[in-house]
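TOPIC: backbone geometry
CONTENTS: sequence, structure tokens:
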Amino acid sequence: MIPIHLGISTCPNDTFTFHAILAHRIDLRGLAFQIELLDVEELNRRLFAGDFDVAKASFHAALHLAGDLGVLPVGSALGFGVGPLLLAATADDHPGTPRRREGGSGQARVLCPGEHTTATLLYKLFHPGQGRLEQVVFSEIMPALTLGDADFGVCIHEGRFTWREHGLALVEDLGEVWERETATPLPLGGILARWRLPPDTIATLAAVLADSLAYAVAHREETVSTMRRYAQELTDEVMFKHVDLYVNEWTADLGPTGRAALEMLSRQAASLGLLPANTPPLHVF
């Protein structure tokens, strides 16, 4: 057996995709997984610290980690005209901009879901210098907006489907802005593997993950119990909306479209000075 320390996020598209691995419904081909499920920014931090053989990561983080990790062709989330939402605390039809607080009393407080999330990269790209950015756990953003503790928030995961219930206002879909500006889909996150792993192990990992995804697609209702375990507050409808949005043919294989999107993300990050000059390109296995 080959031990693999695996980290994945608790969001429905990951628990759907990895259900058959978590529930031992498929042949693991000699791999022995030690699995941790965490918030994506915690996964990013742990990868920077050298943890995990394989893990889900924001593609923003992946760009920085390219010297140590590559991207598996299976398991990625690409958004087509959809992505993180920039929300405002007011339900006014004209919520303003993140430049200043309502009434002009100082900079607006803008909450983001983690320094190395793709959501934060997008905010910095499309709203440079606007507002006072603070990084918090993604699940804290909408409650803070509802309570009036922040002016704007970049919301990910289930926030895309539940923001109206919180009486919040949509400023823009950053994924829609990205696609309009770049003519590529938005690469949100993917499965990274350490370069130190033998090539045949990486190939086996990709094959097992492909099997797990295929099993989930064929046994859709069976995945509910796994998704529910890690997203107890979400309805089945919301969980499957999340899955249907981000689990698609490019999850099965990034292909040329996904690779082109990653190259665009790298160029955009470099244009903001967010990548060191000597950063190697991100490789897809």
